[in-house]
Design brief:
By secondary structure, the chain is of the alpha+beta class. It is 46% helix and 18% strand. The chain is built from 18 helices and 18 strands. A hairpin with a 5-residue loop joins strand 10 (226-229) and strand 11. Helix 10 (325-350) runs parallel beside helix 12 (390-403). The longest helix has 45 residues, at 494-538. The radius of gyration is 31 Å and the shape is elongated. 35% of the residues are buried.
Length: 595
């Protein structure tokens, strides 16, 4: 009996000893690993710890990128993301690549975070889109899945639209315009030229050749709410809505193009005079939206239209509180046009009865692209991979996700079978569970009346005074702006809405002052001619003094009346400028979370 007990005890002891040996062996392995990593540490790498976390996480993934063998799916609205490689500047400062594209439709952002105790960790944010292109993807490949399926739409009497959206320097102009070699751009490898190439190939097909279609092109930019013709020495154009609610860009030149080379020449001319400026992200930032349109006509009437848009850098939309008025107005217009664009595309996808296209000049000139059953749209969101651009990258991805809301689940992330379980990807760092991002609309939406409450105080009374003076009460443009801000309460604070109202009012007033000034100038020429005739009359020996006095008084009365009216409008316009400045100082970029 005693022997059995001793045997049992010895077995337990052996098991305990085995566990101790395993523990000691594991501790030694971990110590060796730590020592090895300590030896590998690059002292010049500022974020070596984060780099190791990202590397370990990527090692657990099973990569399944997009290939030419993948099927091209039919989408009325297609939203995709393109990641560019790290550029020379980022490599020089040893910036980290924090973007991973593990599969054909998933994008992951490894956002570095820090706890209260200064421990660093990664927050892995996951997004899903129709397509995700990694940094090795060519323009031809991006075109194959995005704009190419839309070309046939314009031959079927439809409207096609392709946008490139993202931070300055993320690859929008490279994607749309073509590859860069230094400062020189090869326009033949951009989506503009690739789309034009396929349009001319389509024209040769028997079923379209018999229609005797002609191809035209226009190229214009929208800068600070104004439209300029890039093919006509940047002539300023007017956007008007006719009685049939059709938007016309008055004076826009259409050039007939007969081959791809003709299109390339027009692109080079237009790109050479596009407005650009400096931002924190780039020394040569696109400050305008560039719109290149390929128009197919049959016997003079429009048969179809393909609009290709290189949008202004989205980080400029945050410049609404800048000290410089021109920068503020640029930022306000970009901010408003991007919000309006998003809502117009959403309205197209959901077949909503009303599209708020009048809320911005961009969506106004593209109105016909958002209505009708035969309208198709594609958005290419371009993102920078660097850790320094992480915030702008997340903003771009959230915007693209709001255009066409995709769900995301843990099963969408392709973990390798041997790289660890989904519950515990890597024990060396913390990571957030891969659950869908919470709906910020539900999370942040407070009382809808808050937008209207933001109008309180002296700024509203000043706006009301200006409206009364200028007879500018409710208008379709302002109604659409209000609707736009209500639909984006989580992004537009009450103060920002008031600022947008001030800017819209300012733009309307500016156009009216300029129009009235031109009219007064033309009238002044007529007055000079009339006065010249009067003075010539006084040189006669027996001229009619009564007639001279009467006519001169009439001319002076007209001058006083018209010039006084113009002066009062200029005074009101200057008041509006001050009002805009005051409103810009009150801006709260995001609505506060409700208590």
């Amino acid at each position: 009996m005693c022997v059995c007990v001793s045997r049992r005890k010895s077995h337990c002891v052996k098991e305990v000893e085995k566990l101790q040996e395993k523990r000691e062996r594991r501790r030694l392995q971990q110590q060796e690993l730590r020592e090895k990593r300590a030896q590998e540490v690059d002292a010049t790498m500022p974020n070596y710890e984060i780099m190791c976390m990202i590397r370990d996480f990527r090692a657990s993934l099973d990569y399944r990128p997009l290939t030419t063998a993948d099927l091209i799916e039919e989408h009325r609205i297609c939203v995709c993301v393109r990641k560019r490689p790290l550029n020379k500047k980022e490599l020089t400062v040893k910036d980290l690549d924090v973007i991973t594209i593990p599969s054909k439709d998933v994008v992951m952002v490894h956002e570095p975070k820090q706890k209260v105790d200064l421990t660093r960790y990664l927050e892995n944010q996951t997004f899903r889109f129709d397509y995700a292109f990694d940094d090795s993807t060519t323009n031809e490949m991006v075109y194959r899945f995005t704009a190419r399926p839309l070309v046939e739409t314009i031959f079927e009497r439809g409207m096609a639209t392709c946008f490139a959206y993202g931070q300055t320097g993320s690859g929008k102009t490279h994607t749309m315009g073509g590859d860069f070699s230094g400062k020189n751009q090869d326009c033949s490898k951009g989506i503009y030229a690739l789309a034009a190439r396929d349009v001319f190939l389509m024209l040769k097909k028997p079923n379209y050749k018999k229609l005797e279609l002609q191809v035209f092109a226009t190229f214009f930019e929208i800068y600070s709410g104004k439209v300029f013709d890039l093919l006509n020495r940047k002539a300023k154009l007017r956007v008007l809505e006719d009685g049939k609610q059709q938007v016309q860009v008055v004076g826009l030149q259409e050039r007939e193009v007969r081959c791809t080379e003709d299109v390339l020449k027009l692109i080079e001319v237009g790109n050479s005079c596009r407005t650009s400026g400096q931002t924190s992200a780039n020394a040569h930032s696109s400050r305008s939206h560039a719109v290149f349109q390929i128009i197919v006509r049959r016997r003079g009437k429009m048969h179809g239209k393909f609009s290709l848009i290189d949008l202004a850098g989205n980080e400029r939309g945050a410049d609404t509180s800048s000290a410089d008025r021109q920068t503020r107005l640029e930022g306000a217009e970009i901010n408003k046009s991007l919000l309006a664009l998003k809502e117009c595309i959403r309205a197209l996808g959901r077949n909503k009865p009303h599209t708020p296209f009048r809320a911005s000049k961009l969506t106004q000139v593209l109105r016909d692209s958002f209505i009708g059953e035969n309208s198709r749209t594609c958005m290419i969101a371009t993102i920078s991979p660097g850790m320094a651009s992480c915030e702008n990258t997340l903003n771009t991805l959230r915007y693209a996700n709001r255009v066409k809301e995709f769900g995301i689940s843990p099963s969408d992330i392709p973990f390798s079978q041997t790289g660890g379980s989904r519950a515990e990807v890597s024990p060396t760092y913390e990571e957030e569970d891969f659950t869908p991002l919470p709906n910020r609309m539900e999370e942040m939406a407070g009382d809808p009346g808050m937008v209207l409450e933001g109008h309180g105080g002296p700024s509203l009374s000043q706006l009301e005074v200006l409206e009364a003076q200028w007879a500018m009460g409710s208008s379709p443009q302002r109604d659409d702006l209000k609707l736009l801000c209500e639909q984006n309460e989580e992004e537009v604070s009450p103060q920002l809405f008031t600022f947008h109202e001030c800017v819209s009012q300012l733009v309307e007033m500016e156009e009216q002052v300029l129009e009235d000034h031109r009219a007064v100038f033309q009238e002044s020429i007529r007055w000079l001619e009339d006065e010249k005739v009067l003075l010539e009359m006084t040189e006669e020996v027996d001229y009619d003094v009564d007639s001279y006095g009467t006519q001169l008084e009439q001319i002076l009365d007209q001058k006083i009346e018209i010039l006084t009216e113009l002066r009062d409008k200029v005074k009101s316009f200057r008041s509006a400028l001050q009002e805009e400045e005051q409103a810009s100082k009150q801006i709260n970029p995001k609505r506060p979370r409700p208590l």
